[in-house]
Design goal:
Chain A: One of its GO terms (molecular function) is transferase activity. Chain A: InterPro entries: CT_A_B, Cyclophilin-like_dom_sf, PxpC. Chain A: This is Biotin-dependent carboxyltransferase. Chain A: Pfam families: CT_A_B. The structure holds two protein chains of two kinds. Chain A is an alpha+beta fold. Chain A has two domains: about 5-175, no CATH class; about 180-300, Cyclophilin, CATH 2.40.100. Chain A is built from four helices and 20 strands. A seven-stranded mixed barrel of chain A has the order 12-19-16-17-14-13-20. In chain A, a hairpin with a 2-residue loop joins strand 6 (about 85) and strand 7. In chain A, helix 1 (about 40-45) runs parallel beside helix 4 (about 295-315). In chain A, about 50% of the residues are buried. Chain B is α+β, with helices and mostly antiparallel strands. Chain B folds into two domains: about 5-80, Gyrase A, domain 2 (2-Layer Sandwich); about 90-240, Beta Barrel (Cyclophilin). Chain B is built from five helices and 14 strands. In chain B, a hairpin with a 2-residue loop joins strand 9 and strand 10. The longest helix of chain B is centred in the first third of the chain and has 16 residues, at about 25-40. In chain B, about 40% of the residues are buried. Classes of the chains: A alpha+beta, B alpha+beta. The interface of A and B includes residues 233, 238 and 300 of A.
């Protein structure tokens, strides 16, 4: 039985449905998409008793205003975009109940850039190629393949009632700084740059520009000059790949990146740092630090262990 | 065969098969992808063949970079001396050339030939699908004769309809979905390369071939209607070697 839960009064800057994205279709040119900050999405889901990959609302910088149409348990995680219910500030990283007639809205972005609203039982929306994620460019997934608009109504599946008052331990709640250190594994094309340029990349500060979106973050800093050409024969490009086009200013590939690309990539951001990086606002300063694949995979294991533990705990209660 | 391996962060590995675009390299990549499909490695999520590389995405909590590389090296050894991957298919793409507003006349003029000549050069030959990408379902095709090569339009179109067949430089391709673009559009196929609502949303696959076959407007309409009724099946034939 699906019930109306949210009616959109104001859509916000960019509010879309996202889950873990479309897996297994990249060889056909299908973009992965999915939540930019997968950590915040996972936690938001656990707090309301969902599976980690249930679709959530991704809210960007200026959040929406939602009229609550039915009683439900929700949680808001990720960047602090000043969520309020009926004008009262609500605690993030903690599940709570909303009731018919309430209003959920967002205010000033205080910390981070993206917040995630989970709904106990998830949203009643169709799967497209195994995912509910919205991919705007091809107009697929989510609600009619587009961002939320005024007047849209979102329905819940009603399969899980959820429990309010569940919170992530304070120690585990991430903080998002305006100065970030982002870990990278070098390559695959770092050898097409001189040793000096590689050092410049690793020792300089790069600023996130306003030309940053779900597809990629354009950062600005000391120019990375190619020894020969910026172009390569097109190949698959990964999440976190750092492209260097001919202008020498890096672009970090994010959730909505194309599947293939033809620019040299100096390094790849480790998957464990993608959620954190996703919270960078324009003006945020980034420094890149080289780590080995082994170190990066150790970090992955630690994150994975935490997620599994939380999943277990949330399914027990 | 000795391959180069590069880590792409902590969740990807890139296998490099060569430094130039060739049918031979493409076949090697195709054979490797086929082996991955037939002998799944636990922890491998998906892979993306490209012109000279095969990129494999995996879960580091299931398999480490080092172990995966060893397994892939072993897989590569076993391929040594093997003939080829299984037979390639040729997808037959019925195409109505030169509809109103198309760039067929421009392409003809640019290459000092008649419109019919352009069609004859473009159609009835097999193009290798080197890779897929750019947008959902877009094939990167190789093998277009230089005789009909034409630079992109000076003023790109704001809207190109799905199924449009175009030329950009010495490349030819088909637009799977509506998008802006600068390609010289010479024809259109009613066949859907991309249908997100379908069980198999993407028609084509890299490593196979594609052949344009010229049809008239009536035939175009007929096929379009059949597709709407769900009664059209894209024809394929086995690629003859040599």
């Amino acid at each position: 039985m699906s019930d109306a839960i949210f009616k959109v009064t104001k859509p916000g800057l960019l509010t879309t449905i996202q889950d873990h994205g479309r897996v297994g279709y990249q060889q056909y040119g299908i973009v992965v998409s999915g939540a930019m900050d997968s950590f915040a999405m996972n936690i938001a889901n656990f707090l309301v008793g969902n599976k980690s990959n249930e679709a959530v609302l991704e809210v960007t910088v200026m959040g929406p205003k939602l009229a609550i149409m039915g009683n439900a348990v929700i949680a808001i995680c990720g960047g602090n975009l000043s969520p309020k219910v009926n004008g009262e500030k609500v605690q993030m990283w903690k599940s709570f109940e909303v009731n018919e007639g309430d209003t959920l809205e967002f205010g000033q972005p205080l910390e981070g850039a993206r917040a995630y609203i989970s709904l106990a039982g998830g949203f009643d929306l169709p799967f497209v190629m195994g995912s509910k994620s919205t991919y705007l460019k091809a107009g697929i997934g989510g609600l009619e393949g587009r961002a939320l608009e005024k007047g849209d109504v979102l329905y819940g599946t009603g399969t899980i009632s959820g429990k309010s008052g569940r919170a992530l331990h304070r120690d585990k709640v991430p903080t998002y700084s305006k100065e970030m250190e982002i870990r990278v594994v070098m390559g695959p094309h770092h050898h097409t740059f001189s040793e000096e340029v590689v050092q410049t990349f690793l020792s300089s500060t790069y600023e996130v520009t306003p030309k940053s979106d779900r597809m990629g973050f354009r950062v600005e800093g000391p120019k990375l000059v190619h020894e020969t050409s910026a172009d390569i024969i097109s190949e698959a490009i990964p999440l976190g790949g750092i492209q260097v086009p001919a202008n020498g200013q890096p672009i970090i590939l994010m959730a909505d990146r194309q599947t293939t690309g033809g620019y040299t990539r100096i390094a790849t951001v480790i998957s464990g740092d993608i959620p954190y990086l996703s919270q960078a606002m324009p003006g945020c300063k980034i420094r890149f630090r080289e780590v080995s694949v082994e170190e990066a995979q150790e970090k992955y294991e630690n994150n994975d262990r935490l997620i599994r533990t939380l999943e277990k705990v949330s399914s027990l209660r | 065969m000795k391959l180069d391996y590069h880590p792409l962060g902590d969740t990807g590995i890139q296998l490099v098969f060569g430094s130039e675009i060739s049918e031979e390299t493409n076949q090697k990549i195709r054979m490797f992808a086929e082996d991955l499909n037939n002998h799944p490695i636990d922890g491998v999520v998906e892979w993306v063949p490209a012109y000279t590389t095969l990129t494999i995405y995996y879960l580091p909590n299931k398999i480490s970079y080092g172990v995966l590389q060893e397994k892939l090296e072993a897989m590569s050894e076993q391929q040594h001396g093997r003939e080829a991957a299984s037979a390639s298919l040729v997808y037959i793409i019925p195409t109505y050339y030169g509809d109103e507003g198309s760039d067929l006349s421009f392409v003809a003029e640019h290459n000092s030939m008649s419109e019919d000549d352009v069609i004859n050069v473009h159609a009835n030959k097999d193009y290798l699908i080197y890779m897929m990408g750019f947008v959902p379902g877009f094939p990167y095709l190789g093998g277009m004769p230089e005789d009909i090569a034409t630079p992109r339009r000076v003023d790109p179109r704001a809207e190109i309809l799905p199924g449009s067949v175009g030329i950009a430089g010495s490349q030819t391709g088909i637009y799977p979905l509506e998008s802006p673009g600068g390609w010289q559009i010479i024809g259109r196929t009613p066949v859907k390369l991309y249908d997100p609502s379908s069980e198999e949303p993407i028609l084509l696959e890299s490593g196979h071939y594609l052949r344009f076959v010229s049809i008239n407007k009536e035939k175009y309409k007929e096929i379009e209607e059949a597709i709407k009724r769900g009664e059209y099946v894209v024809q394929t034939e086995e690629k003859k070697v040599g």
